[in-house]
Amino acid sequence: MNSKTGLTQKLLRTARKLKRDLLPVDPSPDWASLLKDQTARWDQARAAARGGPKILIATSTGGHKGVTPIESLLAVALTLRGAEVHILLCDEALPACMQAMYADFSSAAEFAEHGSEPLCRSCYRHGVATYTPLGLPIYRYSQLLSADEIVQADAVARELPAAAIPAYRAHGLAVGEHALAGALRFFAMGTLEHEPESEPVLRRYLAAALRTAAAVDGLLRREEYAAVCFHHGIYVPQGVIGEVCRQRGVRVVNWSAAYRKQCFIFSHNDTYHHTLMDEPTSTWEELPWSEKMEADVLDYLRSRWHGSRDWIYFHEKPREELDQIVRELGIDFSKPTIGLLTNVVWDAQLHYPANAFPNMLEWIRATITAFADRPDLQLLIRVHPAEVRGAIPSRQPVVSEIRQMFPVLPPNVFVIPPESQISTYAAMLQCDSVIIYGTKTGVELTSLGVPVIVAGEAWIRNKGLTRDASSAAEYAEMLATLPVGRRMDAATTTRARKYAYHFFFRRMIHVACVLPGPGWPPYTIQFERLDDVMPGAVPGLDVICDGILTGSPFVYPAERLGVA
Known about the structure:
- This protein is an alpha/beta fold.
- The protein has helices at about 5-20, 30-35, 40-50, 70-80, 110-115, 115-130, 140-145, 145-160, 175-185, 200-220, 240-245, 270-280, 290-305, 320-330, 345-350, 360-370, 385-390, 400-405, 425-430, 440-445, 470-480, 490-505, 540-550, 560, and strands spanning about 55-60, 85-90, 140, 225-230, 250-255, 265-270, 335-340, 380, 415, 435, 450-455, 465-470, 510, 515, 525.
- Mean pLDDT is about 90; it is low at about 1-25.
């Protein structure tokens, strides 16, 4: 490891620690204090909920400060709606999990030797401190695992050939796939190929995946749940929990923080990264459209340039002036220019299945190669700012990958690196059209009339708005037709704005009692009495709880309730 790489990794660890420690108070509600004067009311609610539909909040990682506040709120709200809520926590029983990141350890070798152990005690204590005051049943992993199951899981993880791990299935469950996802996320890389400690780390995640499968299967044999709710739906242990539930026919609900402030995305059966790609267009294409709805969505899309209405954004002061962009890049926008937007390498590898290309880097390679033979066009590559400004900075920079593939770039190819303050939107609006792999920016660009080609899996795919490549050959044919030479027609642009409205205002569910806050996570839960989260008090919470309890769609009726 050279000195520059070592310094970068040290800075990543410091940044991650600062982000964790920046929040001066715990974002989780102080349930003991909140319930102190309402003990009788809460006891009545819990008693009334016994025998109601059983819901498992499978938090597992109780120390995840972005998760526990929301899932403890759901536990209370569901109880008040008659559900018998149970909690699942890991009590230091897993040798690896999504809480562990490369930047948390002095080296990958430290994690390979000790696993998540340095994080486990505080994680479990935080979960217990949050949930115990609620007086709801708490299941712990160690209670659900027998000594034989632990021995067997660890033996498989130790003895299975490393090359066989990604495809390994146990009792029909894709535990190897989830172990690989966990290891890739740990390293913040799209491949384990060049990581010296990749094998022992991968084996730790396989052992954790197998232990999770055994624990959750044992719990589902013991309890009959109407639904199991937990965040994200991928990685270890969450991805494995979903696998076990689906195999046993138990309804799954996954959620994640959305882009808009005070908003969350919930989905049935799988992570929203997958379900939003398969969502029927009938969910939104017949929306009664109005000038106000169009104005609302365009106003919000413009706000995304600066992130003023979002709690996930990457530039506080983006550079939008065209002359400055031209000077920085040396590009001539009077020539036909095609934009290309990347994802974070490891993110794209985990969240989105391959389509026309086996992975995002192969797509980038094919695209630059094709443009090398098109001197009449310019290719403007915008590397995702989240590589350096995201919650998990990437250790596999796209710029470095491009340099390895093309030591000398074709003269008509330009790259905006992730640290650049150039506004992605300002640059892409100068382009004839834009090519994407999996980024949600396709939703925004089509709403502004920009033609988009989708080469991977993105939420804008299959919506009747973009040209979607299903093979490398089909993609090459699409590139051969560039430039488009015009913006999208009015009818298609309106259709795109309808989808953007649905995506940003209806699928992102506004929860009024979750307020923006400093540090990480960027929100806090605030309400004074149980009445504040009873049915009818928070419309978004009603949508979420109804979806968990009955399976109804997780769609917030913004067209009726208005845009928050």
